[in-house]
Amino acid sequence: RMVLALFVQDYGEIFSNAKLNVINILPRADHAKNNVVIELNNYIRHVCQTHGLTYIDTESRIKLFSNGGIRKNFYFRNNYDDVHLNDAGIVRLGKHLKYLSHL
């Protein structure tokens, strides 16, 4: 966990004028793994708040890639590695990021 905080600190010193946006870890198909993902995302959110970074959350409120704790597999490359977004997922994320950029 300290690696992220150290990275953010080093990043801030090297690129002091840059804006860093951090996106949450996307949900997994396995419920047990999702418990770990939720814990990690809480930590990432905390680090971002502590260091004044923008935390982009796709799951807490809007459920972009999950529904009631169940991942929407339609948006993931299930036959590839079960982790990365497929084309439909990338389009969905891109639209969300575009929306956030206009707030």
Structural class: mainly alpha
Anisotropy-based shape: globular
How many strands appear in the DSSP assignment?
A: 4
Radius of gyration: 15 Å
What composes the largest sheet? 2 strands, parallel
Q: What is the beta-strand fraction?
A: 5-15%
How many helices in DSSP terms? 3
Q: Which regions contain 5 or more consecutive residues with pLDDT less than 50?
A: none
N-to-C series of helices and strands: HEHEEEH
Kindly state the percentage of residues in helix: 40-55%
Sheet with the most strands: spatial strand order = 1-2
Average pLDDT works out at 87
**N- to C-terminal separation?**
31 Å
Overview of this structure, please?
The protein is mostly helical. The chain contains three helices and four strands. The protein has a two-stranded parallel sheet with strand order 1-2. The protein has a two-stranded antiparallel ribbon with strand order 3-4. β3 and β4 form a beta hairpin. It starts with a helix and ends with a helix.
Give the secondary structure arrangement, pairings included.
Layout: H1 2-14, E1 21-23, H2 31-51, E2 54-56, E3 66-67, E4 70-71, H3 87-101
Parallel strand pairs: 1-2
Antiparallel strand pairs: 3-4
Helix pairs in contact: 1-2
Features:
two-stranded parallel sheet, 103 residues, globular, mainly alpha, 3 helices, 4 strands, two-stranded antiparallel ribbon, 48% helix
In short:
This protein is 48% helix and 10% strand.
